[in-house]
Amino acid sequence: MPRLLIIGPPGSGKGTQAEHLASHFKVPAVSTGDIFRSNVSQETKLGGQAAGYLDGGDFVPDHLTNALVKDRLLDSDVQSGFLLDGYPRTAPQVMELDNMLASQGFALDAVIELRAPDAELEQRMRRRAEEQGRADDTVDVFRRRLDLYHRETHEVVSVYAGRGILVSVDGSGDPGEITALAIAAVEKFLAGSST
User: Which of 2, 84, 163, 192 measures 20 to 30 Å from 139, CA to CA?
Assistant: First the structure.
């Protein structure tokens, strides 16, 4: 089973695609966003620390995020494969993930990048805010997240592109079609890299 990472700007449908891809490849989806929200709603110590950053649209600091992900990657259900969603978001987190996986004798097999125009992403965010009523879905918070993505996370994409494990997928349009495109692209990549 593969060890995958999905990356893309806020509103690109990462969460939805992560679920479908994880199901297809029969691996658990590991979402830092879900872990953060769970900790905030359960009012854990970490949740309290993370809440201030999340509410302002900022990234949770690396040391908090790294600790959460490290704990999760030690769980038995992810030992044979996983799909990471929302981590790593910065170049230092890439190094930390490399170390976490290397300590277990693993490495990422492929990184799926979802791409979509900013205007479409903002439109999706507004729709999600109306449908789900999430407090962190405001235009200002969204634009701040998008700016952070372009400034910091783009560097992560460049690192994985340089390693030759980046699989870019057009994230515009119908979610079902995007899923089919992503599955086909990843399967083709994995088949090519194992020969």
Answer: 84
- Global pTM? 0.84
188 given a catalytic annotation: no
* pLDDT-flagged residues of the chain (< 50): none
Q: Can you tell me the distance from the alpha carbon of 6 to that of 66, in angstroms, rounded to the nearest whole number?
A: 17
Short-list 97, 45, 41, CA closest to 72:
97
Of 115, 124, 126, 128, catalytic: 128
Rounded to whole angstroms, the Cα distance separating 83 from 56 reads 27
Which one of 3, 26, 37, 89 is the catalytic residue? 89
Reply yes or no on whether 128 is catalytic.
Answer: yes
Q: What is the pLDDT of residues 58-94, one digit of tens each?
A: 778 888 888 888 878 888 999 999 999 989 988 899 9
Active site residue 127: no
Q: Which of 134, 151, 163, 188 is catalytic?
A: 134
Is 69:39 a contact under the CB 8 Å cutoff? no
Work out whether the CA dihedral 188, 183, 21, 55 comes out positive or negative: positive
DSSP assignment letter at 19: H
Interatomic CA distance for residues 9 and 146, integer angstroms: 6
Active site residue 37: no
Q: Is 126 a catalytic residue?
A: no
